[in-house]
Amino acid sequence: MKILVLNAGSSSLKFQLLNMDNESVIAKGNAERIGIDDSFLTYKANGKAITTKYVMPTHVEAMKYILQALTDKENGVIKSVNEISGFGHRIVNVGEDYFDSVIVTPEVLEDFRSKKDFSPLHVPGAISGIEACFAIAPKIKNVAVFDIGFHKTLPDFAYRYAIPKDDYENLKIRRYGAHGTSHRYVSQECAKLLGGAQDTKIVTCHLGSGSSMCAVVDGKSFDTSMGFTPLEGLVMGTRSGDIDASVVGYLCNKKGMKVDEVVNYLNKKSGMQGICGYSDMRDVEANLDNPDCKLAFDMLCYRVTKYIGAYAAAMGGLDAIVFTGGIGERDPMVRARVLDGLKFLGVDYDKTNNPNVFGDFGELSTKDSKIKVYVIPTNEELVIARETLDLIK
Fold first, then answer.
1. How many domains does the chain have?
2. Are 179 and 379 in contact (CB under 8 A)?
């Protein structure tokens, strides 16, 4: 069976076609600049990478060209769209009613629309992606897989905020987390290395332009750094991470900003971008002689180290640390700085091997380390494909 996994943004539609008989990737790519001038589709299959310019005013056109590429006589990988058994969609968060993956019907999609405020930066694009599938291939089932799904097991003392109970119950204000498919995948892979999930305490670090961490006890999410939205937690590319909520009112009063403007400011103009002018860690590290860049690097690494220590205390121990995501998998400088701060826990890592682990699996811990340290490349698409297959069988 073949599953097409889709990750829709406001102006993009990433895709990956998987053969679930052996869980292999058949083709992948990205439709970019949807609704903007100079839109194009990148398609990779059979060892080729093809970029084609198309006019794509909406996700419907993007979906049309994706399916056209997959079925192309010369470079396609399937003869007909009917070979696709299901579409799996990444959805960040539409509230407490949707932790578990679900088959999307028109009624479910309408419910998503009413709850897009839980993740206003991500959900509208995902809805557009599902609408495109409904329009182009109405006979193929659609499954929504939620970023928050893995965090369903958070205890109430970890997910509740200290605000009036009525506002939690009526408005569903609580910690939801994100990157759940990534944390689930890498923690499961780590558990295999440890001999099974039972009696394990793992911290997974998904570090990229958006970053989050997760404390995993016995294979279940116990706590996570992102909160009501993906704004909370670590210092990120353009997001502030943890910040005193009073800052919102202060900025409104002092700068005449509206609340929505402050939220945008904290999401898109803060983080490393706000500190030093660069949102990409590669640019930050290339300019570490700039005090602002050094500060951004130090702040990001400090926050990661602090969370690992806090989670070790919260779990009552720590068996393994996992790095994943663009930075986690490919940035030995960040890994080194974080791990250097964890010697008190008995962490000892191979400083010679660390720079050699770049985008691939690797064990960083030495034989003398009390805590295992791994780099495990994430595979969110595979998790989504598995969930989709389970529901449509």
1. 2
2. no
Reference 297, options 275, 326, 323; nearest CA is 275
- DSSP class of residue 309 equals H
Torsion angle of C-alpha atoms 251, 257, 261, 265, degrees rounded to 10: -40
Q: pTM (2 decimals)?
A: 0.93
CB 324 within 8 A of CB 374: no
Distance of CA 262 to the CA centre of its chain: 23
Sheet holding 84-91, edge to edge: 48-53, 40-45, 24-32, 12-19, 2-8, 84-91, 141-146, 102-103
Residues 120 and 198 in one domain: no
What is residue 117's predicted lDDT score, i.e. its pLDDT?
86
Cα atoms found within 13 Å of the Cα of residue 49, Cβ hemisphere only? 3
- End residue of a domain, out of 86, 117, 146: 146
In a domain, residue 24? The reply is yes
Same domain? 229 vs 364: yes
Query: Which positions are annotated as active-site residues?
Result: 147
Q: Are residues 96 and 21 in the same domain?
A: yes
Q: What is the pLDDT of residue 303?
A: 99
Q: How large is the greatest C-alpha to C-alpha distance in the chain, in angstroms? A: 61
CATH number of the domain enclosing 348: 3.30.420.40
Q: Which domain holds residue 132?
A: 2-146
Dihedral angle computed from the Cα positions of residues 66, 68, 71 and 73, in that order, rounded to the nearest 10 degrees: -130
**Could you state, in chain order, the average pLDDT of each consecutive group of 10 residues for the chain (393 residues)?**
93 95 97 92 95 94 96 96 96 94 97 90 89 94 97 98 97 96 98 96 97 98 96 97 98 97 96 97 98 99 99 99 97 99 98 97 98 98 97 94
Same domain, 91 and 208: no
Domain boundary among 86, 121, 146: 146
